[in-house]
Each structure stands twice: as C-alpha cells, then as structure tokens.
Amino acid sequence: MTGMNEILLALQNASVQYGGVRALENVTTQIDEGEIVALMGPNGAGKSTALKALFGIVPMTEGRVLWHGKKIIPVPYEMSARGITFVPQGRQVFKSLTVYENLELGGYSLPNRRDLKNNIESVLQFFPGLKPKLGVKAGVLSGGQQQMLTIGRGLVADPKVLLLDEPSLGLSPKIVQEVFEKVREINLSRKIAVVIVEHSVKSVLSIAHRAYLMSHGKVIASRNAGEFEGSGELEQAFLASGTMRR
Ligand SMILES: Nc1ncnc2c1ncn2[C@@H]1O[C@H](COP(=O)(O)OP(=O)(O)O)[C@@H](O)[C@H]1O
Ligand SMILES: [Mg+2]
Fold it and tell me: 197: part of which helix (H) or strand (E)?
C-alpha cells in the first residue's frame, strides 16, 4: 500500500530512554491512510514505547513525529483532537462505571451530546455484544468483552487513526481471532488506519497490510505482511528472546 496513499502519521529516527534503559533506538515507522500496520516483536522489544512516543506519552531523546508530513510535537490531548486514538494494553476499562459510561468517556473531545450519542450508537453496531450490557458495570464483563469495550471506547471519538496496544493479551485464541476480525472490519468499513502492537505474530499478520519487526529497541525488518512467513527473521527475533508465539 505504501506509495499509493498519503502518509498519515510517522515516527522518524525516534530514540527513548527510561533512566539508563535504552528502550527505543533510531526507530522509523509510518502509517498510511487506510492501512493496518503491525508492530511485532518479543516482550521488551520497544513496541509499546514506540506507540507511546507517537502519541506523546513518553518523551523522545531524539527523533520526531510527522502528521500529514508536517512535524508536530505530540501531546496526548492534541493527538486526540487530531483524530488519533490510543488504546493502551491491559484492557483498561473503568470497572465501577457502566459499559455506557465507559463509552461516553471515549467521546470527551466531542463538541456536543448529540454527536456523542450518535457515535456511541454507531460503535454499538460494531459491537452488538455490548448492547445488552450497557447498564452493567464494566468490571463484570469477560476479558474479551472488556477488550471490545476498550476498542469501542476508542472509536467513539470517530478517529482516523487507532493505536492499539496488544489487544490479544491474556485472551484465549478464539477470542483473539474475534478481536482481530473486529479490527479488520473497523479498518475496512470505517477507513480507519490502525497501528496494532502484537507479540502474537501469526494472527496479527493475518489482518495487517504491512508489519515492522522489532527487537531490542530497533526495527529489524519492515515488509508487507505476506512477506514475513519463511523469511527467517521472525524465528530469529523470537528465538533469541525465547518467547516465540504463533
Ligand atoms: N516505565 C519504564 N521504566 C523503565 N523501563 C521501562 C519502562 N517501560 C518500559 N521499559 C523498558 O523498556 C523496554 C521496552 O519496553 P516496551 O516498550 O514496554 O516493550 P514491548 O511493548 O515491546 O514489550 C524494556 O526493556 C522495558 O523493560
Ligand atoms: Mg508492550
């Protein structure tokens, strides 16, 4: 897809340090309009840090963020206002609030109640499983439903880009497949570009257009999703860390 569509969001030559830990070293990634891009790699590779740097949650020691080709200083609430949503890892629902209240929080940047109501309505068409649960406290939902809720909450703002961190974490393979199907559907029908962080390589490659493979804070390969199988790089990256997951 690269080259066909406009580059929406890019991280260029980004480095991040946590105290003495070099978490990201000279990382460059980009997401084009309409794409699903995967950031893959073993635990500790720097995948979450790359998303956080893009969204302005962690400061970069070097590098820059481009939005529609122009340099911006990433600040989370400004990124939201631009139409970029970040769904952090770990299914962070507000457990003591209802499902509906959780969805409402996703629309805090919307200008009025009517937009909020309409957007929640359209999100619920994607997640019909949440409809009978709207009045229920989010804490009692299953893990899979909570993951759907965090993604749904991210969509209430009607973003152009969704940054999705490890939606498969702690879910059964069947539920993971459902979540990924949902992500693909969202991308297709709403034309939302998705950056999805995953260590579960096989399922993410089944929905991604392009993928970056990260290891030890660096991007070690960048290809169309179909070109990773058999390339040997996956095995190399994951075997080195002892955490291969298919
Ligand atoms: N808040 C933090 N403080 C110190 N080190 C961190 C922090 N967050 C992440 N790290 C370290 O940075 C590296 C990259 O972490 P992370 O981006 O979370 O990797 P991934 O998402 O690929 O598992 C790891 O070595 C991790 O231990
Ligand atoms: Mg992570």
Answer: strand 193-198
